[in-house]
Amino acid sequence: MNDFNKIMHTIKNNFKESVLFILLIIFLIIIAYFRLKIQLDIGPMYDTYDLLANAALFAGKNIGYSALRPPFLSFLTSIIFRFEGLSINPIFYLDAIIDVLGVIGLYFFLKLRFNALNSFIGSLLYFTFPIILTYVGAGIADLPSVSISIWALYFTFLAVKKDSKYFLLSFPLAMISFLTRYNQALIIFPMFLIIFVDWPNIKKHKNIIIGTILSLLILIPFLIFFTFKYGNPLYPFTNFYGTTSGTVSTQNMDYNTDLFFYIKLLPFAMGNAALTIILVIAGGLTLSWIKLVQGKKSLPNITKPLKIKYKWKLILILITAAIFILSLGKVSYILSEILFFILCLGSSKLLKINPDYDLDLLFISWFATFLIFNSVYSIKDVRYFLQIMPAFSYLLIRGLVLIENQIGLIKQRKLTFYLAPLLIIIIIISTTFYLPTILTVNQGNNEFNIDMAAASHWLINYDPNYKSEVIYSDLWANSGWDLQTNVQIMPEFQNNQTYIGLDNYKPDSEAVNNFLVNNNAEYYFSITNGLNLSSYIPIKQFGKVIIYKRLV
Length: 552
Hints:
Elements: H1 2-42, H2 46-58, H3 72-84, H4 89-110, H5 116-127, H6 130-135, H7 142-161, H8 167-180, H9 188-197, H10 206-230, H11 235-245, H12 261-270, H13 272-293, H14 311-327, H15 333-350, H16 358-376, H17 389-404, H18 415-441, H19 443-462, E1 471-473, H20 476-483, E2 488-489, E3 492-494, E4 497-499, H21 509-518, E5 523-526, E6 536-542, E7 545-550
Parallel strand pairs: 1-2, 1-5
Antiparallel strand pairs: 3-4, 5-7, 6-7
Helix pairs in contact: 1-4, 1-5, 1-18, 2-3, 2-20, 3-4, 4-5, 4-7, 5-17, 5-18, 7-8, 7-9, 8-10, 9-15, 9-16, 13-17, 13-18, 14-15, 15-16, 16-17, 19-20
């Protein structure tokens, strides 16, 4: 009878898990569908045009213009270009598909720690964070790279804890994530942290070597391509490293040295459902401390796995932590990452942290690794939030579970059981109201896309030989794609220096004019107001886009 009850209990649990998983897929498809419709109305973002141009190059349909961007998303898009011809929409669909797959990976990842309901809430919460919704299907590499990283870290954990053959998947996926967006190389820190923490328990270490070789096989074709294109197989990587570690102009519109920039804006990135969970966690902590004062059951003794055998171990860890904190923002982000890695590894090894907490350590390391990088890096952008949001969703659910274990509810039901309907309602309402705002906020981008396409089409008819002329543009990526030719970057001028992305840029007509003349420009597509060019006249205007032609 007991065996029968166990079988029925297993069937019942599997049925519930299957229903929740199917429900999650339905939610993801619906949200992705409506987000894609919005993106099709908005059109490409600036970065998207670069990726499209590179995809055309990979497909053997070079338009004369390409950009120094990570290649993988462009490579996937180029496969469609080979069969369907050049168009904009495929990159949106590919982006959305990868984003949805990333959420599915996160669901399986969360199930390693939580039950199906908590994993469902955590995954859906992640996908409906406002910052995530903003970039789902947007046709840029940021969110797809994060989605691939989720699977890379998931398989790494499985390789460490269950079967080292998963390294044959985790390392190649980590490489693909890196080739999708170069800063995803930082996932090596949480990856190697969990590997080193559980090194003695890993069976067949040779699978790490095999996985590494497989990842290098993925990299080699791109290195060969970079060699032919740039003359140096490592040029895109050294260029990226030079950008992130070098000095950034204080005049850049995104220049910001505030180490707490992302912490301050986190409430705006997480959404109403996440804020609700944080309020519940805060309320639960308050209740637990009240119980503690009253002599009742309090929070579990989480210090038990951290029992210290030798005082010098604690001192060593505290010294490392002090050096990390004092040096943060004052040294290269790489040094900060290494210090934090040593701190995590030392805490685990020297204090002999319970293996049950390894998953917590992995997600904390994942969260902190990208928070450190983005906080120290002097260029700040809200889309860099994407890199920490999977780990943040885990930490939210972890906190919720810790609290629900302290609250006695009817028939031993967990807190999430009663909270889930409220959270789902909040998610649906918040998502329904937030999605239309994406179109509203990006209306200017939509207008630029329309105006630049119209201006480009006009020039094609006005001058059939335009491809033989030198053309500059303020939106050179847009112009290059629309004209299907190499359009030059128009810089900004200040104090006899050239910049890209100046804050509060005030155009210098003389400097602009002299630059165009010295570079033999025949046409200039401008969205800059207040120009008075002595050697060029405006010949056509579409919205905010003005076409200038050189005087004979």
